[in-house]
Amino acid sequence: MTGSGRRSARSRIKSSTDDDDDGGDDSIRRTRQPNLKSLRDRSKRRHSSIGIFNIDLKIMLGVSVFALLIIFFLIQHLVKPAKELQRPRVVTPFPGPKLMDLPQFQGEHKESLYWGTYRPHVYLGIRARTPRSLVSGLMWIGVKDGRYHMRHVCQDSDELSTYGWTQHNGRDFGHQVLVDQDLKLGTSFLKSKSEDSGYGGDWAVRIDVQSENSEQNEEIQRNGHLFFYLANEDGGTLSLGGSTLDISENSLLASGTLADVGGWQLHLVSKDSLEVHYSGFRTPHIHNLSELVQQNLAAQIRKFGQLQLSDSTEDFPNILVFQISARIPFKTDIVFVSGTRGDKARVEERVSSLTGTALTHQLQDRQMKFDAKFEQCFKVADKLEPESTIVGKAVIANMLGGIGYFYGQSKISYPRDFSNKDRDNFIAYWPAELYTAVPSRPFFPRGFLWDEGFHQLLIWRWDIHICLDILGHWLDLMNIDGWIPREQILGSEALSKVPEEFVLQHPTNGNPPTLFLVVHDLLHGIEKNKFAPAERNEITSFFEHAFVRLEAWFQWFNTTQSGKIMGSYFWHGRDNTTTHELNPKTLSSGLDDYPRASHPNEDERHLDLRCWMLLAANCMDFITKLLKEEKKLKKDYAATAKLLSDFEILNQMHLDPANGAYFDFGNHTEKVWLRWKEKIVEGGYLNRELVRDVLERPELRLVPHVGYVSLFPFMGKIIPSDSWILDKQLDLISNRSILWTDYGLCSLAKTSSLYMKRNMEHDPPYWRGPIWMNMNYLILSALHHYSREDGPYKGRARMIYDDLRSNLIRNVVNNYHQTGFLWEQYDQKKGKGKGARLFTGWTSLVLLIMAEAYS
């Protein structure tokens, strides 16, 4: 518009010049008619003034249009930011370049991780690392007590005997075994990239269906029914391979086009006799896909008495489900080929290279490479029995196979100073992506901030590039204040797995900054030249760009969670008005119901947070020296680290000299109970509930509960190796009447007044006795450290280390072979797995314990 105005202005200027040329012709005519000179001069002046008037009018019109454009521009760029200023800071992204835009995360690295098993909440799910992806997955019909049950989403109620990855390299290969009553499924995943492939390459899935019981006779148990589906999150229509699917004649199931990968096709190949049916759906969400399939099957059974899909589709389907039925045993290969451009012969050749014998050979090759890399990374061949090695491989495979990709917006509770004009009780974070490991596929299939630091202690040892990618994604979730939401519930699928009361994230609350654990490991590795030159350069470059975000994160903790006394900190978020909790939970600490001061207030000093801040300060100091930034910074991290590691100050603030134990400090009384109280509720009914009863006035004091929190200075290796306090700490650890068991160290001392006590009527003990692997790993790491430090307790530390390590490994391995799973926690009396099963989050640290790999 502006350009056309300029062009018209130039044309008008040119026309006035033409008029001047006409005036030259008049001068010739004036020699012939001198008596008309004055008339012509007046006429010329009139003509010239009219031309100038025309020029001015049109110029003014153009200037006016241009001015309007400027005003419009100012409205858009000044008024809009003014509106943005009204948006709370909590949902304002950190004002710095995103780490995931770094060159090291682009190109070949990004493409190599494009496709993957990035849907950990389902038994088998594949998607791309892009917000609106083509996703695929597997369902099957299980039989229990003579009844059919659909399997799709990982859940304990399915009562699978075992499931999980036995091998997975995090990139292009994985093998999984699932046992559902008498049905055994083996699923293998493999990626391949050829010169004809589209972006991200091709992939194949092999599903091997066997019977665990060869003596079955019931017809209901001799046929297997699998359901493999494709769903386009972008809503684009998927094309069916044909109105009838006869894979003996044509292996094509579906096709379509994606912006990233171009044309694509899905093929099904098998040497067994298969019956294939299909159904197509049009729906904006896929988290309810199981219900859609079951409704379709139910309708078919009612109409025709047959357990098969309807062989029909809704208009413009964005989901296609293929039912694959056959007599057990059977095996089938499903292949996704990208970049298809109409060369049918070449596509058939590519499909052939990813099915049958060719696929078998490639899977065998990847399995051997996985085994070789496992030994290269963890060096456990001479340390473990075969039974333990099996568990070790399952540990790293499930950690890598549990990595997911999520996209969506966190729900943040409203800041106190924000006027809520909507009915919602939350404000949405900006749309964000997250590539992360998850603690548990059935229970916690999403990102947890404090869990992730422990996860990365394994992953960096396996693949440093994946580790840095995950760290970058997490740090990119930081807001302008340096806060990161502790639980990432992104997208409808993730949201469907979370109870409503746990969805909102609170911007005043932190979470242990465990990412500094892996930062510390990587910095130590650079210091000790453990990385190849290319890896060292990549890590250093990452820290150079991540420093500003790590600094903001540190400062958020150092300002918002600081206590009244210099060098003290306390976790925010405890409820000081509760009438139902025995001891108000500290969810932000990650240790939930671990006993703290009975009456929360700002006088509290939390020992564990102080030690986390020391770790963070040490890391920040190291990075500044690595990057030679210390002279440019206002913050002296060395001074902060020196303050927090000062042994005398630590003892003054947290030590009970009587027994050499460290404790929290706060407003506390031990005389708090839960008692039954009767009250009349609506309708005149009598109701009983457990309420909190305080029998004495609290006072500021140390909180006398020995447990994991008490050992944080020990875990942080702050205690000098020749200190009498170290001897007392070893007493607490090794005393069977306090923390020691044959299966690991208890979370809370058996002598504590809150040992194994419920916190509420429906809130059983969580961190009040059971054994947790993450804390035992940190304790073992400290024991290993003190067993190598000169001092009077070196030998004792070694003896305790050997016994504790042996107990932990033996118990986890025994539980795995008995139950088929790793567990969230372990019972301190009998060693039995408790809590969430298939918990391959920080329980996977048992592999580092096997490898004796500590910081």
Automatic annotation (TrEMBL):
Pfam families: Glyco_hydro_63 (PF03200), Glyco_hydro_63N (PF16923). Its EC number is 3.2.1.106. It catalyses: N(4)-(alpha-D-Glc-(1->2)-alpha-D-Glc-(1->3)-alpha-D-Glc-(1->3)-alpha-D-Man-(1->2)-alpha-D-Man-(1->2)-alpha-D-Man-(1->3)-[alpha-D-Man-(1->2)-alpha-D-Man-(1->3)-[alpha-D-Man-(1->2)-alpha-D-Man-(1->6)]-alpha-D-Man-(1->6)]-beta-D-Man-(1->4)-beta-D-GlcNAc-(1->4)-beta-D-GlcNAc)-L-asparaginyl-[protein] + H2O = N(4)-(alpha-D-Glc-(1->3)-alpha-D-Glc-(1->3)-alpha-D-Man-(1->2)-alpha-D-Man-(1->2)-alpha-D-Man-(1->3)-[alpha-D-Man-(1->2)-alpha-D-Man-(1->3)-[alpha-D-Man-(1->2)-alpha-D-Man-(1->6)]-alpha-D-Man-(1->6)]-beta-D-Man-(1->4)-beta-D-GlcNAc-(1->4)-beta-D-GlcNAc)-L-asparaginyl-[protein] + beta-D-glucose. Gene3D superfamilies: 1.50.10.10, Glycosyl hydrolase family 63, N-terminal domain (2.70.98.110). One of its GO terms (molecular function) is Glc3Man9GlcNAc2 oligosaccharide glucosidase activity. InterPro entries: 6-hairpin_glycosidase_sf, 6hp_glycosidase-like_sf, Glyco_hydro_63_C, Glyco_hydro_63N, Glyco_hydro_63N_sf, Glycoside_hydrolase_63. Residues 112-272 form the Glycosyl hydrolase family 63 N-terminal domain. It comes from the Eukaryota. The keyword Mitochondrion does not apply. It is a single-pass type II membrane protein. GO terms for cellular component: endoplasmic reticulum membrane. Pathway: Glycan metabolism; N-glycan degradation. Keywords: Endoplasmic reticulum, Glycosidase, Hydrolase, Membrane, Transmembrane, Transmembrane helix. Coiled coil: none annotated. It is found in: Endoplasmic reticulum membrane. GO terms for biological process: oligosaccharide metabolic process; protein N-linked glycosylation. Belongs to the glycosyl hydrolase 63 family. Cleaves the distal alpha 1,2-linked glucose residue from the Glc(3)Man(9)GlcNAc(2) oligosaccharide precursor. This is Mannosyl-oligosaccharide glucosidase.
